[in-house]
Fold these 2 entries.
Entry 1:
Amino acid sequence: MQNSGFTLWFTGLSGAGKSTLAQHLAPILRERGCKVEVLDGDEVRENLSKGLGFSKEDRDTNIRRIGYVANLLSRNGCCAITAAISPYAEIRREVRELTTASFVEVYVRAPLAVVEERDTKGLYKKARAGIIKNFTGISDPYEEPEQAEVVVDTGEETVEQSAGRILSYLEERGLLAAN
Amino acid sequence: MQNSGFTLWFTGLSGAGKSTLAQHLAPILRERGCKVEVLDGDEVRENLSKGLGFSKEDRDTNIRRIGYVANLLSRNGCCAITAAISPYAEIRREVRELTTASFVEVYVRAPLAVVEERDTKGLYKKARAGIIKNFTGISDPYEEPEQAEVVVDTGEETVEQSAGRILSYLEERGLLAAN
């Protein structure tokens, strides 16, 4: 079976584990015959959105660009994994609607208390101190997905468990050949 | 033979026929088994570079973004055809170097007198009148490619002839299975 393209859209707080999960999944999907590109939030900002800030308008523009590229990739047979916070429900819906390939939204859920405690990049501390403005979860909203295809709880699951649940979903949906 | 991905990078003056040629080639390449995306200058500006102007810096940023997306597509087996003026040699070289798939630069050549006479979008007239600033060929430089893989002369050739020469090159290069 030739795997068809799809967009695996991760959304969740900074530090919830989106990039970790994306980087964990990418080689597994490649091993199983998929072409894979990870569109990581930071990398995409550097390449497509330099100069944009974190106002709602700029965030939306950034997300639209990621969605545009993910769509180009996925409709050409690639598995595009996006790993941007993408905090606003409306723009996630817009991206879902414009995507012509299959769109799988994955809510990478972790309680604010957990990600703030981890604070892997030291950003929450800066956000609490007001050094970083418009920080999702602290001074900017995160709108939880209500109909995500997959929800993973990274505060309770290992990355292998979360990845396994996503892979199972992709198999059930017929987007990935069963092992 | 499975066709591998490549970037077909068109460069040339506004009105030289880049988009026309791209739109002519796309269905032919699809018919011959390629996955094809046309990254047209105007469309890409709308989707990736809204807010950017036509200063050298902004043009370079726009071209880098097109190059980034073309690379993502081509390294995943797609034929990415870009149709932006891309007037500066240095940034074209930069994009060529970052592209991990095959990169084919096509100089879509037409004398300024010819494209100005055509003036399909009425832009040259506005540029001459000073209504549009930084207009390539009039008030902004166009740096001709010195080592383009293919040069087509749209002032003298039909679109079929130009397309035929590009297809022949792709066959010779082993990027397209011969008919």
Entry 2:
Amino acid sequence: MALESYFPVWDKLTANERELLKQSAVRRILPKGTLQSTGTDGCIGLLVICSGQLRAFIVSDEGKEITLYRLFERDICLFSASCMINSIQFDITLEAEKDTELWIVPAEVYKMIMESSAAVANYTNELMATRFSEVMWLMEQILWKRFDERLAAFLLEESNLEGSNVLKITHERIAAHLGTAREVVTRMLKHFQSEGLVELARGTVELTDIKRLQELSE
Amino acid sequence: MALESYFPVWDKLTANERELLKQSAVRRILPKGTLQSTGTDGCIGLLVICSGQLRAFIVSDEGKEITLYRLFERDICLFSASCMINSIQFDITLEAEKDTELWIVPAEVYKMIMESSAAVANYTNELMATRFSEVMWLMEQILWKRFDERLAAFLLEESNLEGSNVLKITHERIAAHLGTAREVVTRMLKHFQSEGLVELARGTVELTDIKRLQELSE
């Protein structure tokens, strides 16, 4: 559970940088249900997740939410330290969906290391690009695809046909049924899994929340 | 029109890095109407815009478009070099909306410099954060706000009242009318300006495309 085993590019840090991280990082447990806003007021630092699950979402003025992505073990949350990058001009909210154990690296410490270490700065770039890609994917879904509806409908139909909630079917096969690429199916199934709708295992898709799949498909 | 006057963090580069950039960057003119896709096939390099205007957009399978943001003089396009950041998992399309003069820094050259220079890597971070913020703003608009409709309707109403297409009104005052913050009004007016709907000057908003404002407000 040591920080070095969770922190990427650790081997590219100088001895000083490692020492600084070790001394400044603090271990915390966020009990299930904890909410944490980011932005100037909530710039608590980089979160390095050891166990548990965080949901990142945005909220409208009227209180409507939309989930942007989820963070699991070994994921790193950058936006909880968004004050260290001037051009981040939006806020998100984090919710611990399970009791979540994590390291918090203070934003000013991470920023200092990032400014002198190209390795850390480039890693941060990859991190932001990952989240950016997730948000772009979500936006395309919202705008155009509704592939989630089609996939949910297909899974329910198959489940009825087979008389079982455990479908023995490959992602490839589902893709063929729905006239799309395997990668698209895999990505949406993983999204479904993170939403608790299905459970994935090798060669099978288990439908774990029929009710919500039905709502989605309608 | 030398590269160094357009390239940020030039003063933080080593002599070698400057030399490398100068030798590898090429000057191009993209005639109005030129389309350029990004992604693996279109990884042409970092675009440093000297003059003109580029539109970045995404396209659905059915050919529907949505504009993500626009790039003007001194802006830099990162996604035309997206192959240098592994985690960028989406493609966009660029369209020259005017004849556009730019420098192209080959992706492999920029990547090499970024890997060794913390200054360049951090600059790249800021650049990505800027685009990310623009996309987040757009997503919130699409999901919830429809503030564009309300603002368009307000501007048309004011124009009718005043009997003029040039409104003498501050952003502060518009915000008060619409029950929102000045920053929100300023941002949307700039968006309108980039879409050619209005022309902004100190203390005035000129309505330059009444027809499209009417379509928007309906």
